[in-house]
Amino acid sequence: MENVTGNHLARVRIKNLLLRAYIGIKDEEISNQQDVVINVCLTYDASEAIEQNEISAALNYRTITKQIIHHVDGNRFALLERLTHEVLAIVMEHKAVNWASVEIDKPHALRYAESVSVCLEARRETHKEL
User: Fold this and answer.
1) Which of 24, 67, 110, 130 has its Cα between 20 and 30 A from that of 53?
2) Stretch 30-34: mean pLDDT, rounded?
3) Is the model's pLDDT at 111 over the cut of 70?
4) CB count, 10 Å around CB of 90?
């Protein structure tokens, strides 16, 4: 196999993480848990993971997923925007993450619509020395 060198920007997707939370402002929403569907897309430099072929050199997306589950499942949020922001913050806590996008769907939140979602993204600033 040919050796390919350079920066290997990996795109990781956590798809359709289905959790339940108290989300909303109406009495019914405050007293009953609802489904939320979380999708995360992130990038990180996977060069070391590729070269070493060891889990210790890779971004542990299982850990990220567990942190999201722990933060969201069964907890209370008034706004979908706030929940999305908090999940994005969890992802960005991991220093290896260069960029991330989080989209959270709230199924059946609007009449006649399958779901409503909010999507937020963040990019790590890179500081170049002069």
Assistant:
1) 67
2) 89
3) yes
4) 18
